[in-house]
Specification:
Blueprint (H helix, E strand, L loop, with lengths): L5 H21 L6 H4 L1 H21 L1 H18 L2 H10 L8 H19 L3 H28 L22 E6 L5 H8 L4 H9 L2 E3 L10 H10 L16 H7 L4 H8 L3 E7 L16 E6 L2 H12 L3 H6 L5 H7 L18 H15 L4 E7 L30 H21 L5 E5 L20 H8 L3 E4 L17 H10 L11 E2 L8 E2 L1 H13 L1
Parallel strand pairs: 1-5, 1-6, 3-4, 3-5
Antiparallel strand pairs: 2-7, 6-7, 8-9
């Protein structure tokens, strides 16, 4: 045991952990410890085991150097993009490519460790640095988690005091990332005319001027379900974390409350370990059935971690073994063959879940929420809703420039919607609504709304929105139907009430920017100018 350099191994373990703890804190709004713990555990075990092995064979000094070098290499791997960003923004005058700068930094760190690993002052400083880099983000994450809202309120009544006039099944399809018809036609040359004509024939009202309440899923969907905006300009701002909005998406919302009061049961379909089926957060757990397919959250995390390293670029260039590339692109968490084993859900899967609820509970009204990722990158499905292997595919949630995949994703989405319409009762209410439009142009690289061209704002904020209500209520659907009024309109129809609609705004809130901006007027003015031109 005396041959083991415990201090150096602790420093190496901390250096290895630091990128993951920083990633956890930086993505705390949608990633939890349970989503990423495997990566740092495996990495730390590999580094420490190697250090222990080298110490046992070659002695304490060699083990110290090996452990620190490996810890530094892992640490540096995940700062690859940051080194490149510093070179591009702050040191561009040197004309040194970011890749070369990173290699130089990596080599310099290895050389410093090799030269000074035997110096006790260096080891103490290195241990303090590594513990700080690993521990500070975890402390910040823990503080945010402890101060955030947790738990759920058991507020649902078994029976509402005032029964609705009718209680049909309600299907709410969240068509993640699907653009509005005019956006798809103008920006992407995708014509939805025939599809919309078919919806009109089936009794749908399509809102051709709909805007999202917010430009991100974790704000826009809660705005729909809780029937109020989740972020406001000025002092109210936006929520600091996902805890409250996740709770709403999982069923602790005004919409779920009203439906439960009318005796509805719930079927939720989603991909991966997202918030929609985190029933511990909400009181619908005894009323709900979840259909969880694939693992889009874990796949997105793995891809994002890979993107932080040089491996992502090497994989895109085909310079790594096929098995390694497949793992980096999270193919094992997605569809990889015709078996669809563990893959994303389709309408047929949703209908089977509804049938199982019917078998168990009889003729009860059902509310179906299906979070459909088909029109959102990475585009896993082809035009026939089969696993896609099209040229240019990238296993990234930011691959909005994969236009082949986008078109096929839209085709698949249309087919799925038509299949649903053909398979369920004509009396069922169906809400088809995207949470936001596609990401485009400078949008994904901007931290402030002021930096984003209006066309990119319009593309992201304009949403596909359509609803099928009983014929008597269709004139209540405006051409801007979306957002916080989505279920107010539906429930007014079913209850025979005239609850006041909320003013419709599009409040912009982005990941790195804590400000909330009302972009409604800009978007409406842009639409007017487009028509004039």
């Amino acid at each position: 045991m005396r041959r083991l350099p415990f201090g150096a191994l602790l420093a190496a373990a901390s250096l290895t952990t630091a990128p993951f703890s920083a990633f956890l804190y930086g993505t705390r709004e949608y990633v939890g410890v349970g989503d990423i713990w495997r990566y740092p555990v495996v990495a730390v075990c590999a580094v420490v085991a190697t250090g222990v092995g080298v110490s046992a064979i070659f002695g304490r000094s060699a083990g110290t150097r090996m452990g620190l070098v490996l810890g530094w290499v892992v640490f540096a791997l995940f700062w690859y993009r940051d080194v490149g960003a510093v070179m591009d923004r702050q040191l561009a005058f040197t004309a040194i490519p970011g890749e070369l700068a990173w290699v130089l930094v990596l080599i310099a760190g290895v050389m410093v460790i090799h030269l000074f690993a035997g110096v006790s002052t260096f080891l103490r400083a290195g241990l303090l640095f590594s513990l700080t880099m690993a521990g500070l983000p975890l402390i910040q994450y823990g503080f945010v988690s402890l101060t955030a809202e947790t738990g759920s309120t058991e507020r649902f009544d078994a029976v509402s005091a005032e029964a609705w006039q009718s209680r049909p099944d309600i299907y709410y399809l969240i068509l993640d990332g699907l653009g509005r018809a005019d956006v798809l036609e103008e920006i992407y040359e995708i014509d939805l005319t025939e599809f919309i004509d078919g919806l009109d024939h089936e009794g749908f009202v399509v809102a051709d001027r709909a805007l999202s309440a917010h430009p991100m899923t974790w704000l826009s969907v809660p705005a729909v379900l809780d029937q109020e905006y989740q972020a406001y300009p000025g002092s109210l701002g936006r929520p600091a974390t996902h805890f409250r909005t996740n709770r709403i998406m999982s069923g602790d919302s005004r919409t779920h409350d009203e439906l439960a009061g009318q005796g509805y049961r719930f079927v939720t379909a989603t991909e991966g370990s997202g918030p929609f089926c985190d029933l511990e957060l909400s009181p619908i757990r005894d009323l709900a059935k979840c259909l969880v397919q694939g693992n889009s959250m874990n796949a997105a995390i793995r891809v994002q971690l890979a993107w932080m390293t040089p491996f992502y670029g090497l994989a895109n260039r085909g310079l790594l073994p096929a098995g390694v590339i497949g793992w980096l692109e999270a193919e094992d968490l997605r569809w990889t063959d015709e078996k669809r084993q563990g893959g994303t859900f389709l309408v047929g899967d949703v209908l089977e879940a509804v049938k199982s609820v019917r078998r168990e509970h009889g003729r009860v009204p059902i509310f179906v929420l299906a979070h459909m990722m088909h029109p959102h990158p990475p585009y896993l499905l082809d035009s026939e809703c089969r696993p896609s292997s099209h040229a240019g595919f990238r296993a990234s949630v930011d691959a909005w420039d994969d236009l082949v995949g986008l078109r096929m994703g839209v085709d698949c989405t249309r087919k799925q919607i038509l299949q649903l319409i053909d398979s369920i009762s004509q009396d069922a209410i169906i809400v088809l609504q995207s949470d936001h439009g596609p990401g485009r142009g400078e949008l994904l690289g901007s931290d402030s709304v002021a930096e984003i061209p209006i066309e990119d704002l319009w593309t992201r904020s304009s949403v596909f929105s359509a609803v099928r209500l009983p014929e008597k209520c269709r004139d209540q659907v405006s051409d801007t139907y979306a957002g916080v009024n989505t279920f107010i309109v539906v429930f007014n129809c079913l209850a025979g009430t005239q609850r006041r609609l909320e003013p419709q705004y599009s409040y912009w809130a982005w990941y790195a920017d804590r400000n909330v901006v009302d972009v409604t007027s800009r978007l409406r003015q842009y639409e007017v100018e487009r028509v004039r031109s």
